[in-house]
Amino acid sequence: MVITVKMPGERDKHAWRTELLARRAVIPATEREKEAFALAAAVEAVSARGWVCAYVPVAGEPGSTAMLDALLAGGARVLLPVTGPPGPLSWAEYTGASAMRRARYGLLEPTGAVLPPETVTRAELILVPALAVDLRGVRLGRGAGYYDRTLPAARPDARLVAVVRDDELVDRLPEEPHDLRMGWALTPRGGLRRLGDDYPGE
Asked: 129 in helix, strand or coil?
């Protein structure tokens, strides 16, 4: 069962980000570890044997590289973002935690060849970091805009999955015209859940 919390729908994105980041900052390490383990188990249930775009959780984001290893074990080929100047993300293939290097913003990136932004079109599944996502699929990111510039190039049939904690799946978030909605949420307790106007909350 997915937990949802109600927050005032008129709050702007800055207020949401401030509160959600403050919540993440006080989560005990033991709870983070439990959630990371649960997300690695949950991602195993996501059928993906082709290309998958994912990311390495950092700065309090739920999950760990165990999610990536679970995808590899399931037969997927995993692409991770390589950050550069503001714009669409470039990519590199993940082959294991030992083939990673430190990068800007505290991120970890694969040591292999950097692939151009249009590589995202290979992916049938895209795991997207988020501070929260609502039942309609509206995602709240950190505000840098990398995914806003990247996801419009994804395949029309790609599954866009926001990875959040259970209490970060909320009833309604503020939405702007450029926001691209997610089709699913992946949470530690709830696993994979379909989002959208045709899938009302329980």
From this structure: strand
